[in-house]
Amino acid sequence: QMVGLTGRQVAGAFAALGLAIGIFWPVPNPHAEANGGGMACPLGYGGEKPAATTKTTARDPHAAWFRRYGGGLNATVYTNASFWTGDAGIPWVQAIAVTEAGRVLAIGNLATVTLAAGPDAPVHHLGGENGDFVVPGFFDTHLHLVSGGFRLAELNLADVKTRDEFVARVAAAAKGLEADQWLVGGGYGSELDEDPTAEWFDHPSIPKTLKAWLLRADAHTGVASREALRVSGIDASTPDPVGGLIVRDPADGKTPNGILRDNAIGLVTAARPAKSEEERREAFKRAFDHLLSMGVTSVCDFGDIDHLAGSHVTGNAERVWKDLDILRAMDDAGELPLRVSHYPPLADWERVAEIDFRDRMFRDVKSDDARYKTYGDRTRLRLAGVKAFLDGSLGARTAFMREPYEDDGDNKGVAVCDLDEFKERAVAADAANLQVAVHAIGDAAVDIALGAAEAMKDLNGHRDRRFRIEHTQHLGAPIESQPKRIAMAGAVSSVQPEFMRLDRNLAVKRLGRDRAARSYAFRSLLASGVPLSGGSDWPIVDADPLAAMDVAVSRNVGGDDLDDSADGVWEASEKLTPQQALTMYTTGAAHVAIMSGEVGTLWRGAHADFTVLDRSPEDLGSTKPPKVVSTFVAGKCAWGRCKGDDKL
């Protein structure tokens, strides 16, 4: 029943409505601001005046934007390129202005941006003769920094196709070693028909005293020479560690054949000489240079692969923490050329939670100018969350599946940790407001990850936690069931498109055609509302975002018997559009890593991290995909075609 209102009550209601609109009306789209339009409150509340129309507002040190981001009054205009902003509303602009602190000040057409930057602002012409294309700096949300840096200087077997090639490469590399040195490297597997064993090192061209340890491409399997097994103390009496497997010679079922899987890898790692702190620092530097050459400006780092075997045990990954100290020292010295979000093992979640929240985050760089709260730039290292492993890999047949492998009928893969303990830790870490990431390759592992996500929601309440399922590689039937659960749980997925090339000749053999068709189901995940980010898991595959985007669009991996409809195309129905693929490595990546608005976009106020390409990203999936021309971090050229003072 309607109740009559007095005039005073009606007036009060309208006043309350006006106040609510003023408080809650969205701030104008930053792209729209720079182009002189956008969402505006009908009562005049909310946001700032458009930078395109009021020069003084854009450059006034007392304005709210400058109080927050600072950066001085000097800006640089970048033009002569087509800029993809990452905003679906205004995806393309002609120019951007960047503050001296490396923040985006304005975007739009050249006249608009020049007005915002001021008449004395220098203008940098990015493009070549025909102009180039600029996108937000790529964000790789899953890799292993120091491992990638080491791999660049180790034996690379990624293109080895035969046993003879493998032996020849090993023999050649062994010639340059000192007597006490180990031969390390890896990357084999995607082209070989069988996994190497210790017997392969028995060739006359290879010294019998060679201590060799080589990782398969997926890093969940490795092969040791006989001498490496001996010095590691691995023999017929050595038991399989929890979550690991020492593969035995079928002749007697006891003698190790050199192949070690998952947590058994740690037995060799413990026996190898430790790298010095300086060697590790140099590996980080190599990694940074390589990533910048690929257009990567932000990463999520999950620690040294060699020291993650057995990381389900609290305190077992101390080397990961020491590497974090190296990164922190580099950051304090201003030596980090890109932004790093680090994730220690879940088993150490209490150690992470004990660190003050402010010390885990990117910190504002203090301004020397009293007019500004902050200079506008930030430190480049943060402790972003924690990460756990649930299973292994498809290549090693250790991905945890609901049903047995087609080519190993008694094997469903392995869970590499105690599942009850995992769930308990994940819920506890979430209660401490830590972002949790979980490696889940097989469909059964995805089920377990989802159980943890749903338990977090039930026990810790609803919040925007963005529980990360890493890989989400093989989905159960029906294909839409797990993606719907992921979306309902408020979880997100970090995927690795380049893994398709690793598995192209294995998927049907391992899983059969039906299950292989539910692998790398990126379009199905998006269709169910699952936010996606892209990563490489480098050094598992190279950290080349453009190559990963290209395969996500074309799905042409050249594999055998993947799809009846097109030779070499893996399930064409799961193809992404170029924009969807690009989003995974920019705005989508920032969302998954809880960094939206800071990176992965060219919005006003974002860090001016951007990548210059020679061709349009719309050419992804074509015969001529784009290549990186140069990479900018905080508005400064960090790699590639740099001009004068723009070089860092």
- Write out the strand line-up for the largest beta sheet, numbering strands in chain order: 3-2-7-25-26-27
Radius of gyration: 26 Å
Proportion of residues in extended strands = 15-25%
Runs in which pLDDT lies below 50 for 5 or more consecutive residues are 18-62
> How large is the count of helical segments?
22
First and last CA, distance: 70 Å
Summed over residues and divided by their number, the pLDDT gives a mean of 87
Number of strands: 27
How many strands, what sense, and barrel or not for the largest sheet? 6 strands, mixed
Question: What share of residues is helical?
Answer: 25-40%
Q: Structural class given helices, strands, pairing?
A: alpha/beta
What's the overall geometry? globular
Characterization of the model:
The structure is a single chain. Strand 15 (296-301), helix 11 (318-332) and strand 16 form a beta-alpha-beta unit. Helix content is 31%, strand content 19%. Helix 6 crosses helix 10 (277-293) and helix 20 runs antiparallel to helix 21. It is an alpha/beta fold and 648 residues long. A six-stranded mixed sheet has the order 3-2-7-25-26-27, with helices on one face. Strands 9-10-11-12-14-13 form a six-stranded mixed sheet. Strands 20-21-22-23-24 form a five-stranded parallel sheet.
